[in-house]
Amino acid sequence: MELLTLIGKASCLLNIVKIKQGVVMIHKDLLEILACPQCKGPVKLKDEDGLVCEKCMLLYEIKDDIPIMLIDKAKKLE
Ligand SMILES: [Zn+2]
User: Fold this and answer.
1) What is the pLDDT of residues 55-68, one digit of tens each?
2) How far is the CA of 42 from the centre of ligand 1 (A)?
3) How far is the centre of ligand 1, averaged over its atoms, from the C-alpha of 57 (Å)?
4) Residue 60 sits in a domain of what CATH number?
5) Can you tell me the distance from the alpha carbon of 39 to that of 18, in angstroms, rounded to the nearest whole number?
6) Element (H, E) at 10
7) Ligand 1 centroid vs 15 CA: distance in angstroms?
8) pLDDT surpasses 90 at 78
9) How far is the CA of 43 from the centre of ligand 1 (A)?
10) How far is the CA of 17 from the centre of ligand 1 (A)?
11) How many domains does the chain have?
């Protein structure tokens, strides 16, 4: 699947709900279609910061309710 298609699909299925104090919840269905672009493994929601691939130790940020699933844009975790 092309990345843009995936992002489009993600925004269609957008079930991210912002609640008080910037806490972001992502619907389980959305998390299931999102995978780490590097290892294709599952990502986990980490607070409001974004999605984390624990295998690659990368954090994919969430901007404007859209998870940025790009290796180039990911933050390295210690
Ligand atoms: Zn990964």
Assistant:
1) 999 999 988 878 89
2) 7
3) 7
4) 2.20.25.10
5) 28
6) helix 3-12
7) 23
8) no
9) 7
10) 25
11) 1
Pick from 45, 78, 76, 77: which is nearest to 62 by CA?
45
> pLDDT: is 37 or 6 the higher one?
37
Strands (DSSP E) along 1-78, which ranges?
17-19, 23-25, 44-46, 50-53, 58-63, 66-67, 75-76
For residues 13 and 30, the answer to whether their CB atoms sit within 8 Å is: yes
Structural domain of 9 = 3-76
- Distance (Å, whole) CA 23 – CA 7: 21
19 CA distance to ligand 1 centroid (A)? 28
CA of residue 56 to ligand 1 center, whole Å = 4
pLDDT digits over 20-76, tens only? 445 556 666 777 778 999 999 999 888 767 899 999 999 999 888 788 999 999 999
